[in-house]
Amino acid sequence: MNYIDGFVIAVPTANKQRFIDHAETGDSVFMDFGAIRVIECWGDDVPDGKLTDFRKAVQAKDDETVVFSWIEWPDKSTRDAAMAKMMDMMNDPSKVDPRMDPAKNPMPFDGKRLIFGGFAPVVSLQRD
Prior knowledge:
Number of helices: 3
Structural class: alpha+beta
Strand order of the largest sheet: 2-3-1-4
Number of strands: 4
Number of domains: 1
Oligomer: single chain
CATH architecture: 2-Layer Sandwich
Mean pLDDT: 94
Low-confidence stretches: none
């Protein structure tokens, strides 16, 4: 069964196009490493909750938009192999793919407030 990596990020609203450009460049690395698809969603209807919500989760400021993203992998082993390649690349500057090089493709958001996790689907409904 497929495996999903999910992400929630607070991005300065003024950086929307920079975020799109960053994602279009960097996300192709995940595709090269075996991802089935990568989805980046710009917040459109992200309400404030009474106890918790997406905005609180990433400490979004008034001038920031919440982005919800995921990477779909064919299985967990493909994902784990891809993440091992990513970590190897990030730990050895000589191996960094230019698409992921912060000097060439800087993150247009505060990466310290990005939340992420890996998820094993338990229900999947789909139309053909």
